[in-house]
């Protein structure tokens, strides 16, 4: 995964946002 240190910040931010959104939707669906 870390073989292309060209734009690691953008990829990390994108992955983090994706995980946060997925977790939020899962928790929201679970509570409702």
Please write out the topology.
Blueprint (H helix, E strand, L loop, with lengths): L7 H24 L1
Give descriptors for this structure.
32 residues, mainly alpha, 1 helix
Written description of the protein model:
With 32 residues, the chain is mainly α. Helices cover 75% and strands 0% of the residues. The chain has one helix at residues 8-31. The N and C termini lie far apart (36 Å).
> Between the first and last Cα atoms, what is the distance in angstroms?
36 Å
Q: Which stretches are low in confidence, meaning pLDDT under 50 for 5 or more residues running? A: none
Order of helices and strands: H
Shape: rod-shaped
In short:
The longest helix has 24 residues, at 8-31. The chain has one helix and no strands. The protein has one helix at residues 8-31.
């Amino acid at each position: 995964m870390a073989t292309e240190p060209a734009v690691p910040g953008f990829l990390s931010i994108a992955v983090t946002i994706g995980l946060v959104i997925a977790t939020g939707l899962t928790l929201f669906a679970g509570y409702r």
